[in-house]
Amino acid sequence: MSLFVAPIAPAVAAGENDTITRLCLAGFNAAMSHAGKTPPAGMGDYTCKCFLDEVNAGGSIQAAQDTCKQKAAARYKI
């Protein structure tokens, strides 16, 4: 059995996207704090927008996390 994340329907997306973004930012901030790092301004927003875009496009949660961590690290040079 495999897990498939379907794109979120636009009528429902706004509220769910806000919730997902808040959870993503909380997780991002916790991970950076745990690593003893202070993220550059805008990095959390960029990373979580990337994550949401990837998942809404049909990507898996794990793939979205991996892709967006790499993109953010390259963009913000950390």
Question: Mean pLDDT, rounded to whole units?
Answer: 87
Fraction of residues in helices? over 70%
Could you give a short account of the major beta sheet?
Answer: none
Work out the number of β strands.
0
Briefly note the structural class of the backbone: mainly alpha
**Radius of gyration, in angstroms, nearest whole number:** 13 Å
Number of helices: 3
Residues in β-strands, percent: under 5%
Overall geometry comes to globular
Question: Can you lay out the helices and strands and say which pair or pack?
Answer:
Layout: H1 10-34, H2 43-56, H3 61-76
Helix pairs in contact: 1-2, 2-3
Structure description:
It contains three helices and no strands. It has a domain of 34 residues. Helix content is 71%, strand content 0%.
How would you summarize what this structure contains?
The chain has a domain at 45-78.
What tags apply to this protein structure?
78 residues, globular
